[in-house]
Specification:
The chain is mostly helical. It has helices at 2-22, 47-89.
Length: 92
């Protein structure tokens, strides 16, 4: 069984090396490989749209931070209550 795994690892290393040789790192218009015809096409965006997107992202980040804080505080309160009950109220 270990020989099969070793052959698989060596084959995977060879395939990865072939893929890396095909890549062109310095061409930002191509996605992954030199020969793939997938190019990135970004639409033109005005400054007003960019500022609106930034504001929406800030609002979403604030909301997610608030949700995280509320969830952690609720979990902390439950944990503290259960520890208090187990340590001081519950007598063996």
């Amino acid at each position: 069984m270990s020989q099969g795994i070793a052959f698989y690892v060596l084959d995977d290393i060879r395939r990865t090396e072939k893929r890396r040789n095909k890549r062109n790192v310095f061409n930002p218009n191509r996605r992954y490989y030199k020969n793939s015809e997938n190019t990135r096409i970004f639409p033109k965006v005005s400054e007003i749209q960019l500022s609106a997107i930034r504001e929406n992202m800030k609002i979403q980040n604030r909301q997610s931070l608030r949700k995280t804080i509320v969830i952690f505080s609720i979990v902390g309160c439950l944990l503290a209550t259960s520890l208090y009950y187990l340590l001081f109220v519950y007598q063996v």
